[in-house]
Amino acid sequence: MSEPLRTPLPDVPPEARARVAMLADVPAGELLIHELYLSVQGESTFAGLPCAFVRLAVCDSRCVWCDTPHAFARGTRMTRAAVRAAALALACPLVEITGGEPLLQPDVFPLMTELCDAGRTVLLETSGARDISAVDPRVHVIMDLKCPDSGEEYRNRWANLGALKPTDEIKFVIASRRDWDWAAATIRAHKLDERFACLVSCVFDRVKPVELVGWLLESALWRVRTQLQMHKYIWEPTTRGV
User: Fold this and answer.
1) Cα(40)–Cα(226) distance, integer angstroms
2) Which of 37, 69, 112, 233 has CA 20 to 30 A from 56's CA?
3) Alpha-carbon distance 242 to 239, whole Å?
4) Strands 50-56 and 30-40
5) What SS3 class is residue 193?
6) CATH classification (class only), 14-234
7) Each residue of 48-97: pLDDT tens digit?
8) Chain segment 116-161, per-residue pLDDT in tens
9) How far apart are CA 176 and CA 162, in angstroms?
């Protein structure tokens, strides 16, 4: 009996190769899933809506403030058909694909298309370090631009700005005043607030929401939206599966 076709490991910088090594054992047609659950959307312009979450395992980035490191090295192999069926069985019209970094796994692209075909509104949370040009245009992309204090600013794939649609969103996670100044300058330089929904949120234990709101009001970036991680206020901040 022939071995199942293996999916090539994603192209990542040398320092990230060990981080994606788990994917070497995932054959084509399968995904490495960390969690699959029903909750409420905690961020984005969809915040507050019930949402089915499909969290993929493995991430090639290591943001210093990451709140989902548990997804780095643990996951369950599932066929794409099983993932689709489980997401649809939650019977929620809104589905978010998240991680980890979901775009590391090639089968996530047809999965998103299949969920759209099934009538779901699909959100994709991605770091912005991976090429988004092959994402189904029906998917609402919510893309991070990594600020300096994340430690991953150098991974930003600026070409993605040309692949985003007006219905997509850009998120900045702010850990300091330096991050805010960088985000504000980036928004202005690329006119991001005129092209997409722009969201700013604070690292939960580093910047107070009142500080971030003050910086935003001082900036006169009137189209930029402050957001909180709603789920961390509903549940204890380290709670998983919510």
Assistant:
1) 18
2) 233
3) 7
4) antiparallel
5) helix
6) alpha beta
7) 999 999 999 999 999 999 988 888 888 999 999 999 999 999 999 999 99
8) 999 999 999 999 999 999 999 999 999 999 999 999 999 999 999 9
9) 28
Q: Per-residue DSSP letters for 99-122? A: SS-GGGSTTHHHHHHHHHHTT-EE
CA atoms of 185 and 131, how far apart (whole Å): 23
DSSP secondary structure, 219-232, as one string: HT-TT-EE---HHH
- How many CB atoms sit inside 10 A of residue 180's CB? 23
Strand partners, 65: none
Give the other-Cβ count within 10 Å of 52's Cβ: 24
How far apart CA 56 and CA 107 sit, in angstroms, is: 11
**Alpha-carbon dihedral sign for residues 80, 81, 87, 88:** positive
Task: Enter the pTM of the model.
Answer: 0.92
Tokens of 128: 């912005």
